[in-house]
Amino acid sequence: MIPKDHPRYKSLVTREHLADCARKGIVSWEGLTSHGRGEAFDYLLGEKTSESARQAEKAAAALLKTARHPVISVNGNTAALAAEGIAGLQKASGALVEVNLFHRKAERVQMIESLLREAGADVYSGDAERLLPLSHDRAWCRRDGMYSADVILVPLEDGDRCEVLVGMGKKVIAIDLNPLSRTAKTATLTVVDEVTRALPEIATAYTALSEKECQDIVRLLDNRVFLSEARNEMARRLCDVLD
Amino acid sequence: MIPKDHPRYKSLVTREHLADCARKGIVSWEGLTSHGRGEAFDYLLGEKTSESARQAEKAAAALLKTARHPVISVNGNTAALAAEGIAGLQKASGALVEVNLFHRKAERVQMIESLLREAGADVYSGDAERLLPLSHDRAWCRRDGMYSADVILVPLEDGDRCEVLVGMGKKVIAIDLNPLSRTAKTATLTVVDEVTRALPEIATAYTALSEKECQDIVRLLDNRVFLSEARNEMARRLCDVLD
After folding, report:
1. N or C: more exposed end of chain A, with fewer CB within 10 A?
2. Model confidence, pTM
3. Which of A35, A135, A234 sits opposite B238 (nearest CB)?
4. Over 80: is that where the pLDDT of A159 sits?
5. What is the mean pLDDT of chain A?
6. Inter-chain contact A15–B30, Cβ cutoff 8 Å?
């Protein structure tokens, strides 16, 4: 049992929850390590949503709202950490929710879909095909789902799929705490924020923004500015914290 | 299988190795997340030993060489990642190697001790007692080992034990990639470097330094300088990398 007064209580409880999810097979072993990476970058953000992340979350809402066929791609870590956030954003936006895994097994897909459904999400499932030009399991998706999407939200992406999706002409929104990652640099828009904080912010912005505002935000979107502000925020904290 | 030309090949192979060790019970589930945290900070170091880390490694060697009773404390992650490095440093320095775990089980201790012995380390085992003023399993150590040590090297420490050891009047050398961690700030000396790079550097410095040089280095040691330089190094990389 983790004592409630431990200075890292929330972080430790989340780790234990993820370890439980790994034991059940929802989260992969590698997913635990990825989470640790994210933790470190969130630490450098002060574990709160920065002003530039809030702007990026508005931009994410604008991209989803101006989309013809928006899809939210969910992996094990996202489902384990933020099933409610996914359900909430789906309700606000009407986007399709589709499970896409690096370590794909039929039963793992089913467990994650159940977890999302229990949280209130309407999951788009059915037969997947090998449609994306990738060598690993992430190539599997649905023709009427991710394959046809014009805008895809990929929280906690950790590979080369972002590049492939952008190469297919899709607009990709990443939620990634590492502003230096390939995903962060390749995505159309990168939200540098923790996923459980980011998803409700995107949902709220989706409801608040008018169509006109969304079009303006999308027209002016420059991901390099968001990434640069996130990096500066982290650098500031590295230098300030002990001096 | 991870393709050899993957830009993150080494990092992914290490992750897989740690996941294997977790399956065997050598590494704890939480240890996988801790590793991920370290990965992120190492990324910010450019995954190489900085000049200030090299100075800290010299200082670590000096502390070990001027010690009356030096002990190297080993946990699951350290054994999984760097059993050879531990064996090499022990041979160079003659320090005691003792296993100390947060998630302690007799069979886990034995597995880790075997791993270290296979790598060539002489492991100090025997009956442990609950000797450190800590509520969790890390309290267990040997009276003639860690309990009596004047200098302790703790690679990959992740808790409050560092504070307790310092409070007992011991000099603690931490190897910790996070220059902001409680361990990093509490230790007598923090080596901000990756453990497989740090251990051979400390061993080499141990052999190269004279007694007189060691005394001078120990007298002038200021951990705040090492931490500040590590933070500046990381901040610089955050700001430079994309601009």
Report:
1. N
2. 0.87
3. A234
4. no
5. 90
6. yes
